[in-house]
Design the sequence.
């Protein structure tokens, strides 16, 4: 890196049991590879500390927002960073909130790196006004998105002035052994995610209902936390109404070694998400790390993570019978499950380790500094 004494301000959310973006932020902020020779400082974004606070406005959030805007102004004046790394929300209510932070950043002399973890810009930018706002926000910045496909669909159509784009796939620390050694008897499906309806939690039950018409020896484990109390009530009611009490287990959230054990004790990982902002789910990388065969919706960047029929099974979102059919076929072939799991593990090792990710982010930082 040519520039000496480089200072970066990380304007990010750090881990809380809310969503995966904070885990990526933590990896970046704590990485020795990324931050070698860099003077870093941190301003932590913290609006939601519990899953139940997401998508809800309250006076406390407004106060935290105003305090954070003031703190950002102060830190930019005090630290005078060369670069600011910011995980911008590009759509929805979060985008309108983040515009104030963007306006503050643009008044500083720092270069800005926006790291996007959500999709929907192409769909959300229907009005001329919003397209103008996007041009204002991204003009002259560096934008990291999670895949080349997302850049083509989400960024390039806007013809943004002076923007440099980088595709950097998410990466994770290795959470599993190089081969999958299941210890529990029977055939187990695993769904692991925050229990948002759009993540496919209810569809997982519908899939199980179809599966049970042919196979009564398959068990589904649902691992995660509920966003709302009403979601828990609906899930429990659906399990009972569908007669699935004996084949569905709801565990609640799992972390650390307990979460890893869920992957290792499963035969197939299912991810029937239809979340409109789904991009690059870390749970898929975790399943791949554990050599677990994956059956997933083909939305966001998922088709770029897994090649269909080679490293996983990908289906159209909300295709209940398609999911059930593919799961039954996998259930009947241990060899096919093993081959898919090993291919997924190999793909993880080749592209999605934390080391791959850290080296690419470091490259973005170096090229951003050297381009000045």
Sequence:
């Amino acid at each position: 890196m040519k520039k000496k004494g480089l200072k970066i301000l990380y304007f990010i959310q750090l881990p809380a049991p809310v969503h995966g973006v904070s885990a990526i932020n933590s990896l970046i902020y704590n990485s020795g590879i990324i931050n070698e020779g860099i003077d870093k400082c941190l301003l932590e974004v913290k609006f939601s500390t519990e899953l139940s606070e997401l998508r809800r406005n309250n006076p406390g959030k407004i106060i935290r927002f105003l305090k954070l805007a003031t703190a950002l102004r102060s830190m930019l004046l005090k630290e005078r960073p060369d670069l600011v790394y910011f995980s911008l929300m590009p759509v929805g209510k979060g985008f309108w909130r983040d515009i104030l932070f963007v306006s503050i950043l643009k008044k500083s002399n720092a270069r800005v790196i926006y790291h996007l973890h959500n999709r929907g810009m192409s769909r959300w930018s229907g009005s001329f006004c919003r397209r103008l706002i996007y041009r204002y926000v991204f003009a002259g910045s560096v934008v990291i998105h999670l895949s080349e496909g997302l850049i083509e669909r989400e960024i390039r159509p806007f013809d943004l002035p002076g923007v440099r784009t980088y595709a950097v796939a998410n990466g994770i620390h290795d959470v599993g052994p190089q081969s999958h050694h299941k210890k529990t008897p029977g055939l187990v499906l695993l769904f692991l995610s925050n229990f948002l309806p759009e993540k496919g939690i209810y569809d997982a039950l519908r899939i199980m209902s179809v599966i049970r018409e042919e196979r009564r020896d398959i068990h589904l484990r649902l691992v995660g936390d509920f966003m709302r109390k009403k979601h828990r009530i609906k899930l429990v009611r659906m399990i009972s109404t569908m007669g699935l009490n004996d084949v569905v287990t709801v565990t609640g959230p799992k972390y650390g070694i307990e979460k890893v054990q869920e992957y290792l004790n499963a035969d197939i990982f299912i991810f029937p998400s239809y979340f409109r902002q789904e991009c690059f789910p870390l749970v898929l990388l975790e399943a791949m790390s554990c050599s677990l065969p994956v059956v997933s919706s083909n939305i966001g960047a998922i088709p770029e993570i897994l090649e269909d029929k080679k490293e996983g099974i990908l289906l159209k979102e909300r295709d209940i019978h398609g999911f059930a059919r593919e799961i039954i076929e996998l259930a009947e072939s241990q060899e096919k499950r093993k081959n898919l799991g090993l291919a997924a593990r190999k793909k993880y090792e080749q592209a999605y380790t934390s080391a791959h990710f850290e080296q690419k982010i470091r490259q973005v930082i170096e090229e951003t500094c050297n381009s000045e």
Remarks:
- The chain has two domains: 7-171+353-370, 187-351.
- Residues 7-171+353-370 form a domain with the Rossmann fold fold (CATH 3.40.50.2000).
